[in-house]
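Quick question, first post here. What does this chain look like in 3D?
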Amino acid sequence: MPVINRIADAADELTQWRRHLHETPELMYDLPETSAFVAERLREFGCDEVVTGIGRTGVVGVIKGQGDGRTIALRADMDALPILERTGADYASKNPGKMHACGHDGHTTMLLGAARHLVETRAFSGTAIMVFQPAEEGGAGGLAMVKDGLMERFAIEEVYGMHNLPGLPLGRFAMRDGPIMAAADHVEITIEGRGAHAAKPNEGVDVVLTGASVVTALQQVVARNVDPLSSGVLSISMFHAGEADNVLPHSAKLIGTMRSLSPTVREQLRARVKQVAEGVGAAFGATVTVEIEEGYPATRNHSAQTAVAQEVAEDVAGAAQVDGDAPPLMAAEDFAYMLEARPGAYIFIGNGESAGLHHPAYDFNDAALPLGASYWVRLVERALPLG
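> Answer (accepted):
Ran it through. Tokens below.
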């Protein structure tokens, strides 16, 4: 059961939708044009209900099948990133400093393509809920929709997500049972010392030296505290200190991120970062304060729903094109909140050899649109069979 012919025949129109969205990227919850475009298409298709304003600017389309049955949801994210685009495409962003550098324009288009087909055919029993989510890129829009009663209001029993993956060949899918993407926590370490003339370091407490030593010491946390068979990442990505070459500053700030796939490792990283940073600071005579802001939880697939997703992907692309035991990614994804609220599965669709996600030269591969839309349709038909 390969790509659906009617969807393949509409590939040019899907590409037009995707490129329109690419030209008009919007950030976080501020999605007036994007949300309006999605809602307008869903109404044109003839969805049984179109609801806006879920999770502030999310859009939900309700499609009823033939007869009673269960209710499942399919989710696509809509927001872009604060990046200056450098693709050189004819349809490049018209909004300077904003860019669809993660492929959410493609995700939205694939789900719109599926929604139209499902309305036309209704070859399923029960109800399919099309969820278009804002603010995946750091705004926890998935959590906002859950808190806004998404699952209860639409009686959702299962929820499914999909994301493109550069480097995975076009025409392929990848998924895994259990954790598929990591939890992410934000770390800020403030170091207070004593400023001094750079020519008289003995009269101060050097926060630059202390900070450098903290960064170095933190690199042993994963290497020497986390089980080698588990996964963890600790990266200090910002170091702010000083304003002049002849002054030892009195304070410094380190900022970074921690990633983990299990609650055990997550707690381990939190505890050890605090212990190590404070200990190193004390050894240098500095005062160290560690603040950890909890971010997205790990995205954990559920076994039964992952098995269904794999079967559907194999039907659409062929078994040889589907990896059912793909390695997890240490990036984070707020679909995790939806998977905490309901069972479901999150999979990857190949984007081919493109620039990486969040890169200014990235672009979604339009050739993947019919494949992704067909996957969504077949998933509904498999999960909600007629009769």
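The chain is about 35% helix and 25% strand.
The first helix runs from residue 5 to 9.
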